[in-house]
Design brief:
- The chain contains 16 helices and 13 strands.
- The protein has 368 residues and is of the alpha/beta class.
- The longest helix is centred in the last third of the chain and has 23 residues.
- It is globular, with a radius of gyration of 21 Å.
- The chain binds uridine-diphosphate-N-acetylglucosamine (UD1).
- Uridine-diphosphate-N-acetylglucosamine (UD1) binds next to helix 1, helix 5 and helix 10.
Length: 368
C-alpha cells in the first residue's frame, strides 16, 4: 500500500506527524511525504519537521506565496505530476489550508482515493477561505476522519454517506500528548512568572490597519502589569511594521519570531491566558485547561466552547475587556478533554485505513 501525505502549511505538520508514525508500523506500507511549499520560511516549516520527528519531505513542490487562485493552481498542476508518477493507493490530506483542497481536487479528477483527516468541521462562515476549503475537500473525500461528533453531524447534513465517515478523535492532541514533557523541559527557566500569549494572523484581523491597531491597543491597555508574548506570523509582522513604531517599541508587548512547536507548546502550558485567532490553538488550550479568548466571531471547533476553555470575543473590544477581567479574577473553569482527544487518534486511523484498503483490494480481486 502506498500512501502520499500532503503537507503545506504550519498547522498540517503536527497532524501528519502522528499519522505517518502510526502507519509506519503497518507491514507492507510505503509512505511518501509531499510538501507543497505553501509555507517556506524555516521558522514556519523546517523547524517543525525537526522537532516533530518527520523525515525530510520526499518531494517539495515549492509553490510559495501568491493569491488564492494562483497558489491553488500551482499546487494542482505540480501535484498532478506527482500522483501520476507515484500511483498511490490513497492520498492523505489534513485540515483546511489551500494545499488540502488543491491536492484533493487533483485526486478527485484522477480517481485516486482521498482521505481527509480533521473532516467535518464547520464555521458556517464562507467569508473564511478555510471554510470553502473544508466544504469542498469533504465533498471530494472518500474517507473522512472527524475529531469530534459535531463533524459527523455536519457531514450527514451535507449528504456525505455515513459509511465514509469515522469519528477517531484529534490527531493534533496525539502530538501534544507525546511532546508535552519535552516542551516543559524546553521552556524551563525561560518564561516570565506571569504572562499572556498572543497570536494573530487571520486576514480579517490583521489586514485592516484600523482593526489591527484597535486589537493591539486594547490588549496593551488591558495587560498593563503583565507581559504579552507575541510570536508574530510573517504576514502580521509586515502589517505591524506598516503601523509605525508604536507597537514594536512597547516594553510590555514582546514581538517574537514565530515560535517552534516545543517552545510554543511550553508557552501555552504556562500562560495566564491565551488570545488568538488560530483554530488549532483553541483545541490545544482546551486540552491544557488554559483560558483562551478567541478573536473571531465564530469557530469551526464549537466543542472548545461547550466543553473547553474557549470564549469567542470576536472583534468586540468591550467583550474582550469583560472576559479578560473575568478570567483574571476567576482563573480557568474545570474542563475535561473532549471524547477521544486521548493521544491515540492516529492509531485508530492507521487501523481503519488498512482494513478499508484491504477490503477494497479483496473486492477488486473478487470482481476480477
Ligand atoms: C495559512 C492558512 C491558514 C492557517 C495558516 C497558519 C490557507 C488559506 N490559510 O494562512 O488556514 O491558519 O496558514 O499559519 O491556506 N509568508 C511568509 N513565509 C511563509 C509563509 C507565508 O512570509 O513561510 C507570508 C507571505 O507574505 C504570504 C503570507 O504570509 O503571502 C500568507 O501566507 P499564506 O500561506 O497565504 O496564508 P497564511 O496566512 O499563512
Amino acid at each position: 500500500m502506498r500512501f502520499i501525505h500532503v503537507v503545506g502549511a504550519r498547522p498540517n505538520f503536527m497532524k501528519a506527524a502522528p499519522v505517518r508514525a502510526a502507519l509506519e508500523s503497518v507491514p507492507g506500507t510505503d509512505q511518501v511525504v509531499v510538501h507543497t511549499g505553501q509555507h517556506y520560511d524555516a521558522s514556519m516549516s523546517a523547524v517543525f519537521f525537526e522537532q516533530l520527528g518527520i523525515p525530510e519531505p520526499d518531494l517539495n513542490l515549492a509553490v510559495g506565496s501568491g493569491s488564492h487562485a494562483r497558489q491553488t493552481a500551482e499546487i494542482m498542476s505540480r501535484f498532478e505530476e506527482v500522483v501520476l508518477q507515484q500511483r498511490p493507493d490513497a492520498v492523505i490530506v489534513y485540515g483546511d489550508v489551500n494545499s488540502t483542497v488543491a491536492t484533493a481536487l487533483v485526486c478527485a479528477k484522477l480517481g485516486v482515493r482521498i482521505v481527509h483527516v480533521e473532516a467535518g468541521l464547520r464555521s458556517f462562515d464562507r467569508s473564511m477561505p478555510e471554510e470553502i476549503n473544508r466544504v469542498v475537500t469533504d465533498q471530494l473525500a472518500d474517507v473522512l476522519y472527524t475529531p469530534s461528533l459535531d463533524g459527523n453531524e455536519n457531514l450527514r447534513r451535507e449528504g456525505v454517506p455515513d459509511e465514509k465517515v469515522e469519528f477517531v478523535g484529534n490527531v493534533m492532541i496525539d502530538t501534544l500528548v507525546r511532546l508535552l514533557p519535552a516542551a516543559e523541559k524546553r521552556v524551563q527557566g525561560t518564561l516570565p512568572a506571569q504572562y499572556a500569549l498572543l497570536t494573530l494572523h487571520r486576514p480579517s484581523n490583521v489586514d485592516e490597519p484600523v482593526v489591527l491597531s484597535s486589537i493591539l491597543d486594547t490588549i496593551l491597555d488591558l495587560s498593563a502589569g503583565m507581559d504579552v508574548l507575541f510570536p508574530v506570523h510573517p504576514r502580521t509582522r509586515s502589517r505591524i511594521a506598516a503601523l509605525g513604531s508604536r507597537f514594536s517599541a512597547s516594553s510590555r508587548l514582546h514581538l517574537l519570531e514565530p515560535a517552534p512547536y516545543l517552545e510554543f507548546l511550553g508557552m501555552q502550558r504556562h500562560a495566564s491566558y491565551v488570545l488568538t485567532d488560530s483554530g488549532g490553538i483553541q483545541e490545544e488550550t482546551t486540552y491544557l485547561g488554559v483560558p483562551c479568548l478567541t478573536l473571531r466571531e465564530n469557530t469551526e471547533r464549537p466543542i472548545t466552547v461547550t466543553n473547553g476553555t474557549n470564549v469567542l470575543v470576536g472583534r468586540d473590544m468591550q467583550k474582550l475587556r469583560a472576559e479578560l477581567t473575568r478570567v483574571m479574577q476567576s482563573g480557568t473553569r474545570k474542563t475535561k478533554a473532549p471524547a477521544l482527544w486521548d493521544g491515540h487518534a492516529s492509531e485508530r486511523i492507521a487501523r481503519s485505513l488498512t482494513s478499508r484498503i484491504n477490503a477494497n483490494l479483496e473486492a477488486t480481486r473478487a470482481n476480477a
